[in-house]
Amino acid sequence: MTDETATGLTADRNALIPAGIGLPFILVTSCFALWGFANDITNPMVKAFSKILLMSNFEGSLVQFAFYGGYFAMAFPAAMFIKKFSYKAGLVMGLALYAGGALLFIPASLTMVFWPFLVAYFILTCGLSFLETSANPYVLSMGPEETSTRRLNFSQSFNPIGSLLGMFTAQQLILARLDGASRQAREAMDPEALQTVTAHDLGIIRAPYVGIGLFILVILVIIAVTRMPRTENHGDRLDMGPTMKRLFANRRYTEGVVAQFFYVGAQIMCWTFVIHYGTELFTAQGMAEQDAEVLSQKYNIVAMVIFCLSRFICTFLLRFFSPGRLLMSLAIGGFALTAGAILIPGITGLYCLIGISACMSLMFPTIYGIALQGLGEDAKFGAAGLIMAILGGSVLPPLQGAITDLEQIGSMSAVRASFVLPLVCFVVIAIYGLRAFRTHARATA
Questions:
Q1: Is the sign of the CA dihedral 19, 22, 24, 29 positive or negative?
Q2: Beta-carbon count within 10 A of 221 CB
Q3: Which residues are CB-contacts of 33 (< 8 A; sequence separation ≥ 6)?
Q4: How far apart are CA 301 and CA 172, in angstroms?
């Protein structure tokens, strides 16, 4: 592996991307798209596995538990690895685990049992944890602190491009190609026929993951042989105790970890259960279940397009508004649209659910940037805490899945009622945005 090279990163205090690091910046930014692909090819698999393996919504949502549990489990080991070696080494390790987990879909699909898929997802996301723990603070450090949050938002703008590709792959290469037999028809099949259908469908799921695994290996080699800017001191002593004490004493950071937990939970819930929301709506209108699922995924793709466009727009708006103020405003908007998805039946409620993505676009990198601002070398472990907060995507979706399994809550469908969970999440995010805005206002007064 080629060592990183020192370079002048702060010559221009207003530079978004300093001169001389164009290729390394592009390579690091490409990782944002790669984990976006993994996230959003996986969200529709909750519904797919539930039908293929005849499981409840709660059991199917264990995909998200394993997926985001990997982020939680590996975040601090990744931070220690990066502290001992470098951001570049963290990227290479992350890509290796990502590829390894994706290729494990080959033996998992042959067993036709659920738990090997969960193991594959867990290993894959251990790699994503390395990638995010490395790439986010690396981008922040690739230039002056004055433009760090805007620079991270710019790099994060390419995350939804990968997400769009993941969603499109899930729709066209997985959901649309699964056997058309409904859950009820599968339950009525004899064991031999069911095994044949199950093997076919799991093979359909396997193919895109194997393809991305092989592609990741190519990216790994390219990054390994490219000279990258060095922004840290190699061989630093792992003074974890004093570092953690400073981090826990920093309220902006600790509150940021809490806000990130609820943001990731809200994002995953909105993008996972839009399939359930749309399927319930369209099947009630007489559409076949598989057609309803494919159409719902199209709406999910529209949501991601909105998310992508909004990310670029919000990155531009950060030139004129403080991060905390914009975060608070969008969280209030997310709250209002989530309330609409709960209270307004029919297609209008679905439109509200899709519109939430416009409000979520800014949140992850902005919370990240606010929380890490001014941490210096502590940002390496601070970044790990914020990646561990992705546990929200592991804990909250199964709770929403358990609610949807109730089918009906009073006069309201359980699917619609379940979105009370993201509603609460947006309240927490709005409060964090307000507190960050007040801090900024005091600092500039």
A1: positive
A2: 11
A3: 158, 159, 161, 162, 165
A4: 11
pTM value?
0.72
Half-sphere exposure of 151 (CA within 13 A, CB side): 27
Record the tokens describing residue 189, joined without a space.
Answer: 């099949």
Question: What is the rounded distance in angstroms from the CA atom of residue 216 to the CA atom of residue 104?
Answer: 14
Domain ranges of the chain: 22-229+240-444
**CA-to-CA distance for 400 and 265, rounded, in angstroms?**
10
Rounding to the nearest 10 degrees, give the CA dihedral for residues 386, 390, 395, 397: 140
Give the pLDDT band of residue 82 (cuts 50, 70, 90). confident
pLDDT cut 90: percent of the chain above it? 27
172 contacts: CB under 8 Å, gap ≥ 6: none
What one-character-per-residue DSSP string does 251-305 give? HHHHHHHHHHHHHHHHHHHHHHTHHHHHHHHHHHTT--HHHHHHHHHHHHHHHHH
DSSP β-bridge partners for residue 194: none
Task: Look up residue 339 and give its DSSP letter.
Answer: H
Q: Kindly report the CATH class assigned to 22-229+240-444.
A: mainly alpha
From the CB of residue 22, how many other CB atoms can be counted at a distance below 10 Å? 10
Question: What confidence tier does 218 reach under pLDDT thresholds 50, 70, 90?
Answer: very high
